[in-house]
Each structure stands twice: as structure tokens, then as C-alpha cells.
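Final paragraph of the annual report: two paired records, presented back to back.
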Amino acid sequence: MEYLSRNLKTLKHEKAFHYHPMCSRLDLTHLSFAYDLLLFARGDVASVTLLHDRFNIFLAVSGLKANLAKSFIYYGGVSLEVKHDIQQKLGCSQGSLPFRYLGIPLDTKNLSVMQWQPLVDKIMARISSWTSKKLSYAGKIQLVQHVIFGIQAYWVQIFIIPAKVVKAIDAYCRSYVWSRENIITKKALVDQVFATIGAPKQASWMVRKILGARGNLDVISNRQIHQRNVIKQVYLQMLEKLAKVSWKGLMYQNQAQPKAIFSIWLQVQGRLLIADRLKN
């Protein structure tokens, strides 16, 4: 490839050759990495012919051969007649933007959210391959930090990732860490702990009541859980079915002062210390 680079640099001495408008200040004619090669020139037959001739010299010397089935031409502001002549000269078909180079889609403008889907799919594929492994939370966090964030950092070196894509990636990573799933879910660690932990012997009455509410959550349907009144549903489920009392309306629908209501409740329960009871 070094020979090809030196040979292409001699094109600047050719009067018939014209650089691509965005590459003239850099004297840029090509970019190469491994077996991927990008060639740049202005969209005229003379410039493309000179560029192609230099490339054919390299092929003859090295013995390599270009795969025309995987080679494409990309135009910008070129007439149909010139496009036809260039394609007849090179024997390549016309490609469409964006195209992938080193695993990253390239385009003449900012990538849309849909064009960032390959990055999301790549991260989802990695997470899907990890879901079958029984790792601790610390192990899953290490995978996310070193592998997923590494892939994300590679793309960040070239593009600015949109906030919507970053939120989607964070959601997939969060779901994998907390619930070991490859889909976005709101299931958290506290749900798993709440479902498996037992009440210790020294637990207080309040802790025992909270842990005892797990059975009531199983009774409530999923539709009711996703409603806003889930706390009310759990509370009603935890209430014991007691007989109705006649003084319910007197106590809970009374606009009197709290002290008066409390005195009424004592009287109903037979606990109000009146003069007769004080004598006894």
C-alpha cells in the first residue's frame, strides 16, 4: 500500500487531474485501512481515468485484483452523462449514501437516529450473548463498562452520538445489569430482593408487614399494578375482612374537632371515663 500511496501522490503533477473539492487543500487522493480503500477525485472523466490508471499500475505490480462486485462509485453534483461515461470506464456500479467504512456508516450530513441503529443492534447482540451467563452484578457492570462503553467510545471519536441513541443504549445496559435481559425493562434489583428476602427474627412489626405484602402483590393483576393507585390496591388487599360497624359514619364522616371525634370513639368502645366508671 505504500507503493500505491507514493504513486497516487504523483497525480498532483498531472494538469488533467483535479482533486475532489473538499480534498484539494489536503492533497488527499485516498484513504486506506487493511483491504478497504477510498479514492477521491473530482467528478470528471479525465480525473477519474488518471486515478484509475495509477490504481491499475499498483494491481499489476502487486498481483492483487479489485473485487468489482464490492466496489462502488459515489457521486455528488455530477450529470447523468458523465456518470454513464465514468461507470463505463471503471465497470463499477453506483452506490448510495451512507456506506460503511471500518464498521461505521459515512454520509455527507449528520446521521439520523435510524442510521444509528447498527450501533444499537451491535450492543444488543453483545448483551444477548451475555444473558445466558450467570454473572454477579459486579461482573455484569464490568462487562458493560469495558465492552459496551468501549464500542460507544469508538463511535464517539468520529461522531457525536444523539441524546436519544445514548438514552436507548443506557436503557439496554441498565436492563441487563438489573434484570439480565436483552430488552428494555423497568424491573429493578429491589423487586428481586423484595421477592426473595425473608423477614429476620429480630425484625420489627413494620418490617414484617412490609415483607408480608409480597403475597398481596401476586394477587393483584398486572393491569392494576401499572395503574397509579397501586398503593391503594395493596392496602385494600391487606385489609382483613371485618364486619361493618354501625358507628362508621359517625366516626369517619364527622366534621367535628379531632378531640371530639376521639371522645366519641371512646364512648362507643365503652372506654370513656365518665363519673360512673370512675367510681367503679
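The closing record of the year follows.
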Amino acid sequence: MNDDMTCPEPEPGTAAPEATGAGINGEEPVSPEGGTGPEQAEAMGAAGETVNLTEEINSLRAEVENKTAALAELQQRYLRLQADFDNYRKRTRREQEELIRMAAARLITSLLPVLDNLERALAAATDNKAEGLATGVEMTLRQLKEILAQEGLTTVAALGQPFNPELHEAVAMEETEDPEQANLVVAELRRGYILKGKLLRPAMVKVAVAGATVKENGQEVDKDE
């Protein structure tokens, strides 16, 4: 009898037992690195996810810092623009005030010769020199019209024109037998003026009307009176 122990051979028709990965006593095989295979794979996956999250956090932090810096720059630009606008508004107001002052000074300076002529006309009237008075008044009127025309003043066309309530103020009416003369201005009682396209004062006029009754100064007057 042989002392070596041998495994019994399987009987004919019986399958040999399959080899399993279990070690002795059913334990998992140990990897050469000293850890189990599935645990090592799980640890490596977790480490990779941590690296990705760290990179993403760093990227977001850098983006936030860039946005914060850009916002600060925009705020500084806004403050500078606001200061520039305030300075521009103040400068514009000062310039407008200066222009008004200069315009008034220019107008007054232009009117000084008119005052001189008025004084001469008054002196002539005091000396009972009618001819000198008429000449002085004529010079004064001509100079005044020239100065005001240079400032953009024009007269309202009235005499012989169709009555226009936007330019004329009818204070009297006059009956006419000519139908073509109806509603025309037949007399200018006070001249009207326009300054640079804007009406300053309407012309005070008398208007021709066709009818038995006319009005003067708002009162009805019979034509036979």
C-alpha cells in the first residue's frame, strides 16, 4: 500500500469540480498591491471624480474673480461718466448764461445811439424847432428799426391783407359795398411784430365787412349813424 495520499478519481460519467476564485476558507484572492480588486477600482474612480470637481471649482472661482473685476471696472467707468456729465451740464449752463448776458449787452449797446437821438429830439422840441424834431425822430425810428431787424424782428403784414386771427386783432369793423373788400384789413391801428418766426404782438386792425351793422371796439354801431 502506497503512503502518498491521492485524490480519488472521479467515477465515470461524473464531472470534475470547477475551480473557483475563492482561496482557502472561501476568502477573496489578494492582489499583488495588497488590496482587493473591486475596492481598488472604486477608490481610483472616486479619486478621479475628486480631481474633476477640484478643477471645475477652480475654474468657477477664476470666472467669478474675472466677473467681479469686470464689474468693478464698469462701476468706475459709470462714476467717471456721471462726473463728466455733471461737469458738462454745469459748463453748458454757464455758457448759456454768458450768451444771454452777452446778447443783452449787445442789444443795449446797439440801443445807446437811439437814446442819444431821442435826447437830441427832446432838446430840439424844447427849442421849438419843429423841423429839427421831425428829423431827430425820423433818425431815431430808422436806427431802432435797423437794430431790431438785426435781432430778427419783422413786422406783421396787415394793411390790405385778408384778416388772419392768428396774426391780427380786430378792434373795429367798417362796412363795404365791394364784396371783394370784405374781410380785408382796411386800417392798421397798431403794428404787430414777429421775432424769429414767433409772434410777439398781433397787429391791431380794422376789418372791412359786408352788412348793415358793423362793430367798433366790440360795440355794434348802425351804419346810418
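The domain at 153-214 is CATH 2.30.22.10 (Nucleotide Exchange Factor Grpe; Chain A, domain 2). This concludes the annual technical report; the extension proposal builds directly on these records.
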